[in-house]
Amino acid sequence: MRLGDPSLFVREHYEAHRGVAPPHLAELVVHCLELVALLSRSGLPFRFKGGNSQLVLLESPARFSIDVDIVTTVDKVELTRVVEAIVLESAAFSRCEVRPHRTKPWLPILSFKLFFDSIYTPDACVLLDAVLEPAPYGGVTRPIACGALYEAPHEVELPTIGGLLADKMLCISPKTVGIPLGKGKDAHRLKHVFDVANLHRHAPDLAEVREALAACLAQENAIQKTAWTFEEVAEDTIGFCEQVLAHEAAPPLEAVDPASYLFEIVRGYPDVGAFFFREHYGWSTLRRDCATVIEAVRAVAV
Question: pTM of the predicted model, to two decimals?
Fold first, then answer.
């Protein structure tokens, strides 16, 4: 069983989007959104969030991620049952693996790898990451569609633009609630920089962003057993982005202190471009987005 039309799962369809996205990326987009549609059809109560939710939320999405991020209030046993049943019934996926959290198994988080037979990539998979907590801000419902690339006869709950912006603002700062240094997620952190800048350019309601920020930070502190304030998060986020603005061109990696923010920025930014539709993502584009992130953080901190 496939929920998207069978014509969406063939080489000709992926190749037809060359110039918008590389064919292997188009294939991953189709399978990610097929997974979202299958979760919706299953009756699971969830919200589709994260980078890939922008494929459905925004009229002109600009980037893709290999993850499907959701929040749901079911427990780990029930979510595992739902995902395994989806794989058994679906013609799009061949098998799945449960990925328990390696360092903090007590966290309300569960991850899966859903494998599919790829035309382009051996052992290809879509990652499903679930936070087993209520969504801390409002949502909207949209049809599951991404232009001509994918469409299914189902709807999904998504974050609002302001809510997603608030959520993403907490993902950058390495010293507080963002991705810490030394985790091998250099490019991943920079994708959050782009997302914050891009969502801010959609001019969300700042009052909504502030309210969502407070709720997201309270939930994150409760989960992680921390007590960070937004002032601390904002200071660290701005400091991170200022490292990019201090250099008109990317410095040689060997000239950068390996323990610094700048080291992971320089090491990670060449890999970010692999996840973009159309746009070339170079150092100058990263500088533009870092400046916009600083603007966004200061706007909601007032």
Answer: 0.92
